[in-house]
Amino acid sequence: MNVKEAYNDLIKKELTLDDFGTIVELKNQCMLEMNQEYYYLCDSLIVDIYINEKLYDDALKICIKHINSIDSIVFKKIYLSFLERAIYILIQKKNYKSAYRYAYMKSKVIDLDNIDEVNRWYLEMAYIYAALNQKDKALLNLKAILNNYPSDYLKSYALSNITKLYIDQNMIAEAKDTLNECIALVYKLNDEEGITYCEYLNAKLYVLEGNFRLARQSFQDIFKNLHQLSDDYLSIANEYISLLIEMGLYNEAYRFSIKYIKSVEKSRDLYIKKDFYRNYLKIYILKNKSLREEVRELLSAIEILEEEIEKSDQLLFNETSEDDKYLEVQSRLHDLLSKLERTVNITNLALQNETERECLLE
């Protein structure tokens, strides 16, 4: 079997780490035959496997190696694909300024007559600007997609992101207009994920308007048939739990938290875990009137700690290199997460002992 046939067989499969050896063998064959194109394509398959396994550092190392060495004219499409993968990985790593640098590099080589390529670039830039809290620039890029003949699917995605940015800026009237347009489109496409996300945006709008009852109903519709949650849904779940706490529905918040606690434990996202454990602790304290003031003070101390970490993180983002600051933020989150988990355990013990002070002394 020649290199091209072997490669085509591989891309038909859902590749995993078990296929790593087969791809390496094909890479070696490419080297022997001096077939640079398929050598690069094999590495792109390895990158995709690493991304699926969330081995982002390994994936990024391969991407950067080829971005720095590949002939971007002869292998333009492959070069672009490595840039796009690097941008995606850096966004996942929350290294937004680095992602911006590679997106800028991409802008120099995309085909401006290729609508799909240009719109993908607009979408990447919108995501990066939003993450860097430059919401006006994010909106400009999303609106550029709407004006550049997007597919219906991409149009719905742009509309939902525009709605989210409007909500984040308390622009209720504008958010309602774009959400209504988006809802009509996702139902036309029969896009289940899009419909669910619109329901989430609708819930956020209700919260913004102070209509907690309808917001709660929207969140309930989202989760009624879900038993395991991905990180995207866990973020939404944390918002729902916060709403239930705000409404004073502590028992309902507790039941909901218990239902998805295993999904939280499996998550590798420390931000999600931090928010969940903070909410979990709040539920325990607020729903148990017998708990003494010491335990409530623990919650207050954690909230103050979070505020200090956020302030410190902002300083880090201004003063250090992106990779260094990411590692520092992750370290702080690890510390906070350990404190939260320990506090939850202490609170659990408090419910089973005669005096809370005994537990706290433990």
Q: What topology does this entry show?
A:
Elements (H helix, E strand, L loop, with lengths): L2 H9 L8 H13 L3 H17 L3 H14 L6 H17 L3 H12 L7 H17 L3 H12 L5 H17 L3 H18 L2 H17 L3 H12 L7 H16 L3 H17 L3 H18 L5 H27 L2 H29 L5 H6 L1
Report on this structure.
- The chain is mostly helical.
- The protein contains 18 helices and no strands.
- The model has no long low-confidence stretch (mean pLDDT 87).
- The termini are far apart.
- Helix 9 packs parallel to helix 11 (192-208), helix 11 runs antiparallel to helix 12 and helix 12 (212-223) packs antiparallel against helix 13 (231-246).
N to C succession of SSEs: HHHHHHHHHHHHHHHHHH
Strand content: under 5%
Kindly name the structural category: mainly alpha
Radius of gyration: 24 Å
Percent of residues in helices comes to over 70%
Mean pLDDT: 87
- Number of contiguous helices: 18
Number of strands: 0
Task: Quickly list its features.
mainly alpha; globular
In short:
The protein has helices at 3-11, 20-32, 36-52, 56-69, 76-92, 96-107, 115-131, 135-146, 152-168, 172-189, 192-208, 212-223, 231-246, 250-266, 270-287, 293-319, 322-350, 356-361. It is 80% helix and 0% strand.
